[in-house]
Amino acid sequence: MNTHTIDTSAPVISADAYDTTAFYADADSIAVVTNTTAPDAVALPSPGASTAQLLAAAQEAGRRAVPGPLAETALVARPLLRRAGLPVPDGPLGYAVAPELTIRYARPAASPVGSAGCSGDDDTLLVTGTLRRVPWARTATAVVVLATAPSGPVLFTLAPDRAVLAPGVNLAEEPRDDLHLAAVEIPAAQVRRVSPELLDEARLRAALARAALIAGAAERCVDLTVAHTTARTQFGRPLSRFQAVKQEEARLIEEAALVRAVVQAAAVPLDIGGPAAHFAVAAAKTQASASAAEIARIAHQLHGAIGITRLNPLHLATTRLWSWRDEDGDETYWAPRLARPLTATTLWPALTATP
Amino acid sequence: MAFPDVVLPESACRLRAEVRAFLDEERARGTVLGRPDSWLAGWDPDFSRRLAERGWVGMALPVEYGGAGRGFLERYVVIEELLAAGAPVSAHWVSDRQAGPSVLQHGTEEQRRFFLPRIAAGRCFFSIGMSEKGSGSDLASVATRAERTADGWRLTGTKMWTGGAHVNDYAIVLARTDDTEDRHAGLSQFIVDLRAPGVRVEPIRLMSGEHRFNAVHLDGVDVPDGMLLGQRGGGWKQVTGELAFERSGPERYLSTFPLLVSLLRELERRPATAEQLTQVGILTARLHGIRRLSLGVAAALDAGASPDTQAALVKDLGTRLESSLVDTVRGILPTPADPYATPGTHPELLAFALLHSPGYTLRGGTNEILRGIVTRGLEQHR
Ligand SMILES: Cc1cc2nc3c(=O)[nH]c(=O)nc-3n(C[C@H](O)[C@H](O)[C@H](O)COP(=O)(O)OP(=O)(O)OC[C@H]3O[C@@H](n4cnc5c(N)ncnc54)[C@H](O)[C@@H]3O)c2cc1C
Fold first, then answer.
1. How is residue A68 annotated by DSSP?
2. CA torsion sign, B48 to B54 to B58 to B63?
3. What's the pTM?
């Protein structure tokens, strides 16, 4: 496979990533390799993969705590580039929706009103400002940026080495880097004027990708917890034989199933776009973010002390849940946006809009 | 655990539009009032008959028995529309959901020819006679006995919490026919005419004062041979075989949906705060997710599977939502619940939903029992 490889000798996250040690991406496909000593390549979505397949792959990435921006690349950056008509670079990609950037045209048109930089002879941009907490920026070959130029919304690609990178991480120690831009020139070939709807679509894609990752991490919590409560014995019985344990475990299983259902249910609407996409994605991220606390709580409670250590992989899932629920809009961001268009007469039609 | 995401067939989407048009007519008539828990409390046999005229009662029964021969997903669309609208569907509810499919699957040809066309016409209403004073979650402990007679059976015992026994035509009664080593093996199901001699229906009032269910005393009731349903000794298998149907439907998460609609109507009268919108959004997201899971079970049933674990999972999630929705709605728009307020106003609907709320997580198998099934089911899947 012709792939771009992250240097696996220097893992980008802490050394106790249990399953996954390598992440590959080229323009056509993405693969994760689990266990590099006996390569077991899981080829993930290839060109033409449906949204449902991409979501399933993102979920799998979440479940395995893949150390790379698989969901971000496959579900957010690449589709946005294609929408804007820009070529898709090889390798892992980042994204940022940043309408607050200051953008001028680098080659100002001679303007009768003299507002230099407000329109350009071509679309070469000068960009100033900070892209905050860009996922995996330090490993990305390019970051897809949606911003507002004087002419209106634009999408451009940025090579991270053009910016000053201030490293940061989330709770799971996944890279979340700030990129400081001081009048960075973006050549016109890397810029496209886009419709305002593409900004909305970018937010929806990012939220749904994140929700799919949450669904995967939730599933990991279920797997680990069920394995633990059947294997661990106390009072002469496996933990799972105790009513109190069963009751909590079922709630965990159910909450994880619920998150997966809302994510799956957004696949078709995302392709349809419009209000159906808005409803399904807002619901998916609201639910995924809102469920994270309960899922992590029960998984940890049923694991006992071992679960809060690095002797056990549970933290890979729970620290991600606690981070991902906040990223790309938490439930207090999406829930009111879900509710605002709803009235007594439109609530039921909205719930049943997608076949 | 597999939950397929479902895309409803085109036919189901057309059907939805037809049901909505029908509901608009019925609203104009004053029969569909957007009330919570309408599958327990909305008793209107004329409405049931009009629904049957459209082919929407017993609609998954084969055409040769008077049904409409349509799939579970189409039935799903009809009943979810009815429940969301708070339509009065309780008269035919058990006939449509349980008795019909059960007679079709386990009944004799004679029983099918007699009951199914009547069920599909909305003219034959059933109750469930399972629980007893000493048998709730532990249903296999039922003490009602069926003694063999010359030409049938004599039933003695008392069934408890029998919904609609005072207005319905028949009950499917679970009784012990044989004392066997395995206590599950000696149980059988009977179709009991609720107007037969020896049947005494004693009202049990709910805490709201409503009369919805009863104690049904069977004081040596003679039941002809032809009214044994399915196999002698097969009662337990038959009862548990129905559970996926009984547990995963939209009535397991929509019972209080009309209260949410009422809340939105109230919120339209004033600018909603961000906090109110957030809470409404969180409820809506959960409803949406549970609905998708429930549809997944319906699709599995449609495909001939028996997704018992998934059904238990959906029912636990769904009924917990039904009950927490009531308190969340109260929190979003603090309103003193008032059972004597004008019917249909928010304070009255809140009172009604609240007084019914403890039942949501008990009826049809308690949530503690359901969660036991979910955990066991997932362990076995591994
Ligand atoms: C509104 C309503 C309508 C109903 N309609 C009908 C009807 O039409 N026909 C009919 O036959 N029945 C009907 N029922 C009865 C219903 O099926 C029973 O209420 C239910 O099966 C529970 O039985 P129980 O009430 O005896 O509670 P119990 O079984 O006594 O349970 C009491 C509590 O103990 C818990 N518990 C019991 N066993 C366990 C265990 N092994 N592990 C953990 N927790 C446990 C239960 O979860 C519950 O919280 C109706 C009930 C309600 C509320």
1. S
2. positive
3. 0.93
Q: Exposure of A233 by Cβ count < 10 A (0-12 exposed, 13-18 middle, 19+ buried)? A: exposed
The answer, for A51 touching chain B at a CB cutoff of 8 Å, is no
- CA neighbor of B144 nearest in space, from B135, B152, B161: B135
The helix/strand/coil state of A71 is helix
Q: Residue A226: which of B85, B292, B382 has the nearest Cβ?
A: B382
Distance of CA B357 to the CA centre of its chain: 15
How many A-B residue pairs are in contact by the CB < 8 A criterion? 151
Mean pLDDT for chain A overall = 88
Residue A28 reports pLDDT greater than 70: no
Task: Estimate to the nearest angstrom the gap between the alpha carbon of B117 and the chain centroid.
Answer: 20
For residues B117 and B214, membership in a common domain is answered with: no
Which of B101, B124, B147 is where one domain is finished?
B124
* B374: Cβ contacts below 8 Å, ≥ 6 apart: A250, A253, A254, B309, B312, B313, B316
Probe ligand 1: pick from B360, B362, B371, max atoms within 8 Å of CB? Answer: B362
Domain final residue, candidates A194, A227, A246: A194
A151 near A193, Cβ under 8 Å?
A: yes
Q: Using CB atoms and an 8 Å cut-off, which of residues 220-259 of chain A contact chain B?
A: 222, 226-227, 230, 240, 243, 245-247, 249-251, 253-254, 257-259
CATH of the domain at A303: 1.20.140.10
Whether B81 and B182 map to the same domain: the answer is no
Q: What is the DSSP letter of A94?
A: E
Question: Looking at CA atoms only, how far is residue A324 from chain B in angstroms?
Answer: 17
The more confidently predicted of residues A268 and A5 is A268
**Cβ contact, residue pair A246, B375, below 8 Å:** yes
Facing residues of B188 across strands? B175
Provide the pLDDT for residue A66. Answer: 85
User: B285 and A250: CB-CB below 8 Å?
Assistant: no
- Which residue is catalytic, options B80, B81, B246, B348? B246
Asked if residue A206 lies in contact with residue A146, where contact means CB atoms within 8 angstroms, the answer is: no
Pocket of ligand 1 (CB under 6 A): A 243; B 127-131, 136-137, 161-163, 213, 359, 362-363, 365-366, 368-369
Residue B76 sits in which domain range?
Answer: 10-124
Both A98 and A186 in one domain: the answer is yes
Distance of alpha carbon A86 from alpha carbon A119, whole angstroms? 21
Query: Is residue B62's pLDDT more than 90?
Result: yes
| Per-residue pLDDT, A32 | 61
**The tokens of A252 are what?**
């965990």
d(CA B314, CA A135) in angstroms, rounded, equals 35
- Residue whose CB lies within 8 A of the most ligand 1 atoms, among B38, B190, B366, B371, for a mutation test: B366
> Looking at the structure, do residues A37 and A158 belong to the same domain, yes or no?
yes
H helices of A266-325, in order, are 267-272, 274-303, 314-324
* Residue where one domain finishes, among candidates A164, A194, A224: A194
Task: Clarify whether residues B117 and B134 are in a common domain.
Answer: no
User: Per the structure, how many domains does chain A have?
Assistant: 2
State whether A202 and A262 are in the same domain: yes
Give the Cα separation of A75 and B158 in Å (integer).
Answer: 60
- The domain that holds A110 is classified in CATH as 2.40.110.10
Give yes or no: residues B259 and B228 share one domain: no
Q: How far apart are CA B138 and CA B136, in angstroms?
A: 5
Nearest by CB to A344, which of B264, B285, B375? B264
Residue B82 has pLDDT above 90, yes or no: yes
- The residue out of B235, B261, B289 marking a domain boundary is B235
Is B26 designated active site? no
In DSSP terms, which residues pair with A144 in a beta bridge? A95, A157
ipTM of the complex as predicted: 0.94
Structural domain contains residue B3: no
Q: Comparing C-alpha atoms, which of B91, B95, B96 is closest to residue B48? A: B91
Coil/strand/helix, residue A115 = coil
